[in-house]
Amino acid sequence: MPSKDACLKTDGSFVAGPPVAILAADGVGFVRLMETDERDPLSRLKRLCDRELFPLTSDNGGRVGKTTGDGYLAVFETAEIAMRCAIILKRRVHSLQNETPAERKILFRMAVHVSHVIKEGNDIFGDGVNVASLLQSFAETGGVAVSQIVTESITDLSAIDLGGRRRSKVVRGVVAVVAVVDQG
Domain ranges in the chain? Predict the structure, then answer.
């Protein structure tokens, strides 16, 4: 019987490893931007990801595990590291587009969840990945949704400013705390 820290591989075997923090980021309204001009938003998104988001994720202890068109998934050793990175990413996206007209901005919503993942090459799979992806859909534009396990695993939650507005939802049996991260 595998330990509680084992991950199920696609071949049915288990590989030892602790749970990781999963950050799911998704572009908000990107389809609308693409409807008016496919090339400009796509090139701006690729530039934003390649020059800013992916390097910032790596520089802040994360590993990009999957890109999803207008979003991506990353894994971190701890929820605290993932949350700090999410806040850095949000602030950077906001500051880079400060002068951009509202209708042209590329905005994100994010989620952080802690779970085991199945790693296959550079890709990540598993129920925890699915939960993180679902959680991000509940975040407001510019916001971060976190699972209850994330709030419980961060020892000094006051050190991570989740913003003032919070509400709870249940997503596939996981309690989510949806909060707005300040854009300052």
Answer: 17-180
Assigned CATH topology for domain 17-180: Alpha-Beta Plaits (3.30.70)
14-24: pLDDT as tens digits: 554 689 999 99
Q: What would the two tokens of residue 139 be? A: 């975040």
Judged against a pLDDT cut of 80, whether residue 171 lies above it is answered with: no
d(CA 75, CA 155): 19
Model pTM?
0.82
Residue with tokens 């520089």: 59
Is residue 124 within 8 Å of 66, Cβ to Cβ?
Answer: yes
181's tokens:
């991260």
Question: Apex CA 74: angle with CA 72 and CA 79, to 5°?
Answer: 130
What residue has token string 């980021």?
25
Q: What percent of the chain has pLDDT over 70?
A: 74
**Residue carrying the six token digits 């992916």:** 54
68-94 pLDDT, tens digit each: 889 999 999 999 999 999 989 988 998
CA 138, CA 113: separation in Å to the nearest integer? 13
